[in-house]
Specification:
Blueprint lengths: L31 H18 L15 H24 L10 H7 L7 H20 L9 E3 L5 E3 H20 L5
Antiparallel strand pairs: 1-2
Length: about 180
């Protein structure tokens, strides 16, 4: 059983992550699409070149590489949906997303790494394209997370990009810096 994540990661908007090394505040918003594409490609490579070990948890409380990849895929999809809401509605409220419940309900541990690789690549490309299409006057639009955190499209993009990069570090130990 995985211990549910309760930590608010919004602090990454203020300082570099000491674990994965990404200096989120220094990421230019124009780099988010390229970082998303590079991250999706790295996950794809990892998943298609791996074997049965991709489904093995390093310990009972830590997701396997496949489970992390499923989460990243779902983050790409969720952030694409939320970005579209921010660009088409004034200050939308985002429904709460329980990532741990999603992992259980979607049976992350049982998913095929090759299928996950394909779906993750598609979702990553879609989100990268969506961020690349944000117009100059849209970066200040806002959206509200269920815990009361308000993001602009720009802070949302930076907050987002840390997640898949950090999880790739979780699996590979390769830092962003």
């Amino acid at each position: 059983m995985i211990t549910p994540e309760t930590k608010s990661w919004t602090w990454v908007l203020e300082s570099a992550c000491p674990d994965c090394g990404l200096d989120t505040p220094a990421v230019p918003r124009a780099r988010v699409p390229a970082l998303t594409r590079a991250n999706a490609a790295a996950w794809h490579e990892l998943l298609v070149s791996g074997g049965d070990e991709l489904r093995v948890r390093p310990n009972p409380g830590t997701w396997s590489p496949t489970e992390y990849a499923c989460h990243v895929r779902d983050v790409f999809v969720l952030f694409d949906e939320r970005l579209r809401l921010m660009l088409t509605q004034d200050g939308p409220d985002f429904a709460n997303w329980d990532q741990d419940a999603t992992a259980v309900e979607s049976r992350y541990a049982e998913q095929d790494p090759i299928r996950v690789a394909a779906d993750l690549a598609t979702a990553g490309a879609t989100l990268a394209d969506a961020f690349a299409a944000v117009a100059e006057d849209q970066w200040t639009r806002t959206g509200n997370r269920s815990d009361g955190t308000t993001f602009t499209v720009e802070s949302f993009a930076r907050y987002f990009v840390h997640d898949p990069i950090h999880h790739l570090w979780d699996v590979t130990g390769i830092r962003a810096d």
